[in-house]
Amino acid sequence: MLFHLLFPLADEFIVFNLFRYITFRTGGAVITALVLAFVIGPTLIQRLRARQRLGQPIRADGPEGHFGKRGTPTMGGLLILIAIAVSTLLWADLTNQYVWIVLLVTVGFGLIGFADDYLKLTRRNPRGLSGRLKLLFQVLIAGGAGLWFVSITPGPLDTGLAIPFFKDVLLPLGILFIPFAMLVMVGASNAVNLTDGLDGLAIVPVMIAAGCFGLISYLVGNVIFADYLQINHVAGAGELAVFCGGLIGAGLGFLWFNAPPAMVFMGDTGSLSIGGALGATSVVTKHELVLLIVGGLFVLETVSVIVQVASFKLTGRRVFRMAPLHHHFEKKGWAEPTIVIRFWIIAVVLALIGLSTLKLR
Question: Which of 56, 71, 173, 221 is found 20 to 30 A from 8 (Cα to Cα)?
């Protein structure tokens, strides 16, 4: 909005020329989202606490330390969603359809998470929305986003899969690209959801991944940098750097209230939406496989659940003391801050490895 209002005035007021630069608007999105989270956070948390007197339901079979968190309100993801949406709408070029695609996935998945959290609270049941129904809605939104992306992206980028470490290589998927894109978005969303189990555990790796994809978006969208790095140039994708900036600012603001001991949990409202946002951004920037590396922590958490379930069904034995992986270390006696900080370190290392794919070709 500000881009459209103020940039046309650049001929009369030179200072407004700043709005032509994605880097400037990305910084503006970070600050706007952060300040907005600080401003509305206390009031939102107070209202959530008033409406959720018993707080988020705690799993009866969960780690013993979680019972001390009883009464903490959930749906804090609303804070993240509001901050992302407002900062993006203020600072991004709203004629860019890629921005709207990612916003569609983010808000759409957030609404699914909101319905899930609402049912958990009203029914006092940790299960919430049925898994099949939740997956159905996610698939519909991701499918719509995938079709939209293909319809506005020139070939062969529209249905091509970029392979890391290879110069300008695109594996043509054809019609299979749509289900692949759906898998990336839905998978990323649920992977972040599985990781969200300890105070601050999910939001920091999400911000790290958002920072990586903010940089990737900027480079992919710039024909000079894309040519220098020998990566696929996606015209217009650079505008997603502004969105990623909003996600980082919103994440920082949420972390202020989610730092141990948490005043609020993000709930599925937050985890499903920000995971979907990362997945959608990776699809638009043609770095879907790089997301597996940058978001490797989320992959590890998801794989731990898959392995646990498969092992128990096939052999009757559990590989981990409890899944997802962070609960396994809780059961082993690790302190919660120790788990969280060590997982943050892993996220940083994986992000650096993921970024190295931009140059190692």
Answer: 221
**Are 270 and 160 spatial neighbours (Cβ–Cβ below 8 Å)?**
no
With tokens 């709930």, the residue in question is 267
Q: With 0-12 CB in 10 A as exposed, 13-18 as middle and 19+ as buried, what is 243?
A: buried
Both tokens of residue 3? 């881009």
Is the full-model pTM beyond 0.85? Answer: yes
The b-or-e profile of 12-46 (16+ CB within 10 A means b, else e) is: eeeebeebeebeebbbbbbebbbebbeebbeebbe
> H/E element holding 46?
helix 22-51
pLDDT digit string (tens) for 208-229? 999 999 999 999 999 999 999 9
Residue 233 structure tokens? 């140039």
Identify whether the C-beta of residue 199 lies closer than 8 Å to the C-beta of residue 74. Answer: no
CB-based contacts of 204, cutoff 8 Å, min separation 6:
251, 255, 340, 344, 347
**232 and 220 in contact (C-beta within 8 Å)?**
yes
- Helix, strand, coil shares of the chain, percent, nearest 5, are 70, 0, 25
